[in-house]
Amino acid sequence: MFLRKGFRPLLVAAAGLLWGGAHAFPNVGNQIADAVVSALTPTGSAPSAGTVEYAFSPDAGAEKLVLKVIGTSKKQIRMMAYALTSAPVVSALIAAKKRGVDVAVVCDYKQNTSDSGGSRARAALNALVNAGIPVRTVAAFAAHHDKILVSDQLTVQTGSFNYSAAAAKSNSENVIVLWGNEAVATGYLRHWESRWQIGRDWRTGY
User: Fold this and answer.
1) Of 68, 144, 147, 191, which one is the catalytic site residue?
2) Is 145 a catalytic residue?
3) Cβ-Cβ contacts under 8 Å for 11 (sequence gap 6 or more)
4) Average pLDDT value for the chain
5) What local confidence, expressed as pLDDT, does residue 35 receive?
6) CA distances from 171 to 57, 58, 70, 89 (A)
7) Known catalytic membership, residue 23
8) Which is catalytic among the residues 152, 169, 191, 201?
9) pLDDT digits (tens, 9 = 90+) for 15-25
10) 3-class SS of residue 85
11) CA dist list (Å): 17 to 3, 176, 198
């Protein structure tokens, strides 16, 4: 509690001074403070609950399991992504939005918007935003490497699997789903929210 309410303002001020003041870098103090507080927060724990399901890739069910989580979501999806170029995943998120699910996505800025990320990543972000799904990109870290889905505030999908065609068809990856573990989902949602708060809205050019 002290770290979040007492120490954080000092971090913001110090970061602002080190980086040339608020006018030069208006949000850097908050970004660095959030990262430090996150690093100093103790690890979480949760009781065993629900069912665990897992799968692997290439072509061994990993992407299918991700799509299952999206497809069975009824109320809410919160996603964190590093690379987001998978057409099936993007289509599933848009389909979820159309059936009334509240969907929001946070992803790495450089990986998805720079030339190295490729046009497919930018097209994926554009498709989501044009479908009414809010997307924010995060540039505060060397890499925003989180790859998770939280469904209905109850189920967590995580693992090494990037939401990309390469992850499904070329790479050795893993996916694990903790179905019905609300305590774990709550912890992951807090992490998602901390990154959402320091992200920037992605806006399409058309």
Assistant:
1) 147
2) yes
3) 29, 32, 33, 36, 37
4) 82
5) 54
6) 7, 6, 21, 17
7) no
8) 152
9) 444 444 444 44
10) coil
11) 20, 42, 19
Among 88, 81, 62, 54, which residue's Cα sits nearest to residue 170?
62
Whole-prediction pTM: 0.77
pLDDT in tens, 35-84: 555 554 567 766 676 799 999 999 789 999 999 999 999 999 999 998 89
- Side by side, which strands form the sheet with 200-201? 51-57, 173-179, 155-159, 148-151, 76-81, 102-108, 135-138, 200-201
Considering 59, 145, 191, 201, which one is annotated as catalytic?
A: 145
- Report DSSP state, residue 148: E
Closest CA to 192 of 141, 122, 136: 136
The H or E element containing residue 67 is helix 62-72
Judged on CB neighbours under 10 Å (0-12, 13-18, 19+), 157 is: buried
Q: Do 157 and 149 form a contact (C-beta atoms < 8 A)?
A: yes
DSSP state of 43: P
The four Cα atoms 196, 57, 175, 119 give a dihedral, to 10 degrees, of 10
